[in-house]
Design goal:
- It is built from one helix and twelve strands, in the order αββββββββββββ.
- It has about 130 residues and is mainly β.
- An eight-stranded mixed sheet has the order 1-4-5-6-11-12-3-2, with no helix packed on it. It has a four-stranded antiparallel sheet with strand order 7-8-9-10, with no helix packed on it.
- Strand 9 and strand 10 form a beta hairpin.
- The N and C termini lie far apart (about 30 Å).
- The mean pLDDT is about 95.
- The structure holds FE2/S2 (inorganic) cluster.
- FE2/S2 (inorganic) cluster binds next to loops.
Length: about 130
């Protein structure tokens, strides 16, 4: 990540097109089967807008699990998070780079609290994230 991006808090993770997910009550339904390119193992996207009160980070782990988190560092800058390539770790995209494990626990940096993890279930080839 460049220092420029870190200063501005620009994350590496890209948003998922709003055509590929919807919010139904407290569940975000991701149309996995309609994605033009599947989410790669070790890849991540984020969901934002569309009625969500906070962005959601969705990732596919190297061992093929889908996980979802509140995409908001708990440090006061509340920057978005990126999956660290090749590591089971999330990193805030701010210059201070707080890190979290894939259970949401804080590992390092100025953030003091864990991030919220959401339940992800697969249903008919799609994903259902309970917020
Ligand atoms: S917003 Fe400051 S470390 Fe994440």
């Amino acid at each position: 990540m460049s220092i420029f991006k870190a200063v501005l808090g620009i994350c590496e993770t890209k948003p998922l097109s709003s055509e590929l997910w919807s919010l139904e009550g407290n569940k975000a339904r991701v149309k996995l089967s309609q994605m033009p390119e599947p989410l790669q193992k070790g890849g991540a996207v984020y969901l934002k807008g569309g009625g969500l009160s906070k962005p959601v980070l969705l990732l596919r782990t190297e061992d093929d699990r889908y996980l979802a988190f509140e995409d908001r560092c708990t440090h006061f800058g509340h920057r978005k998070l990126d999956l660290v390539p090749g590591e089971a770790k999330l990193r805030c995209c701010s210059i201070n780079h707080s890190t979290y494990d894939l259970e949401g626990n804080r590992l390092s940096g100025p953030a003091k609290r864990p991030i919220a993890c959401y339940t992800v279930e697969q249903s008919n080839g799609d994903l259902e994230i309970t917020l």
